[in-house]
Amino acid sequence: MYQKALASDDIDVFILFSGDGHFSSVTSFLKNFYHKQVVIYGVNGSFSKQLKETANVFYTLPTEKDINESFYKSIFDYLKTSPRPNYNEAIETAVKKNRGGASKQKIANAMKTLMENDVISERSIANTKGKKQKMLFVDWEKAEKYMLSGE
After folding, report:
1. Quick check: pTM over 0.85?
2. Residue 150, φ and ψ in degrees, nearest 5
3. Which residues have CB under 8 Å from 34's CB, separation 6+?
């Protein structure tokens, strides 16, 4: 990167795909001494704070929006197929579907967001024996809009 910066005056922007903090010296050099723009893409959870601070612009991948959308999709998939959907089963099924890529707490937070935005509601319904059972209901129109808006 140093050689390219020194040999090429026509390059204005350097794009780096790394989260490794060892690259902070080169990004600082490019930015401060050669007045180049440095854009960095790094993976969430392994992106050096120092590297972020030396870049002009940085992007963390996947974004929180991307992650939450996958959680919402898992929840909605369960709700579409379950005849008597309930909160605990929805969370457990979504956790399993994400194969360890999501904690129970993260899925529960996604469910909480959907409930706070009135996409999903929980109501007590009498079952065939007259006993009350809490079930989840989805406003599918809101769910579709919610997924499209990427909130």
Report:
1. no
2. 70, 30
3. 5, 6
